[in-house]
């Protein structure tokens, strides 16, 4: 029985020590919460003030950015119209130049064909004249 009473005293004192430690931990936690509360409130106030200052500072900048965006849009719109006109003019100029070049090329081809036809006719006449002269010469040679 001595063992039983020893264990009861041992575990009983451990239980008491555990209860005491739990009480001390709760008390320490309460103190930490109480001590931290002012700092937490200061941090919250600081964050709120920072957000307000940021909004105040950012608002004019955002408005300026919007103004610049609108101005940019207007300028681009003006130049887009002018660029469209320029491209139209360029297209007309290129088309005109291409048409002119095509007409000149067609005229050159026609001229070349006519020159070639004339040359072919002249060659045919020369060839026929030479053939008749050669044939005449042969007949004369045969007659002799």
From TrEMBL:
Residues 110-119, 131-144 have a biased composition (Basic and acidic residues). It comes from the Bacteria. This is Uncharacterized protein. Gene3D superfamilies: Apolipoprotein A-I (1.20.5.1230). Residues 110-144 are annotated as: Disordered.
């Amino acid at each position: 029985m001595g063992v039983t009473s020893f264990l009861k005293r041992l575990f009983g004192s451990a239980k008491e020590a555990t209860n005491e430690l739990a009480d001390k931990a709760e008390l320490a936690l309460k103190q930490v919460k109480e001590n931290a509360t002012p700092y937490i409130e200061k941090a919250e106030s600081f964050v709120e003030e920072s957000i307000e200052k940021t909004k105040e500072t950012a608002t004019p900048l955002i408005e300026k950015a919007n103004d610049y965006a609108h101005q940019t849009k207007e300028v681009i719109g003006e130049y887009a119209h002018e660029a469209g006109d320029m491209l139209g003019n360029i297209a007309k100029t290129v088309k005109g130049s291409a048409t002119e070049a095509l007409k000149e090329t067609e005229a050159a081809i026609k001229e070349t064909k006519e020159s070639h036809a004339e040359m072919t006719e002249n060659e045919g006449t020369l060839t026929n004249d030479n053939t008749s002269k050669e044939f005449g010469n042969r007949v004369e040679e045969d007659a002799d």
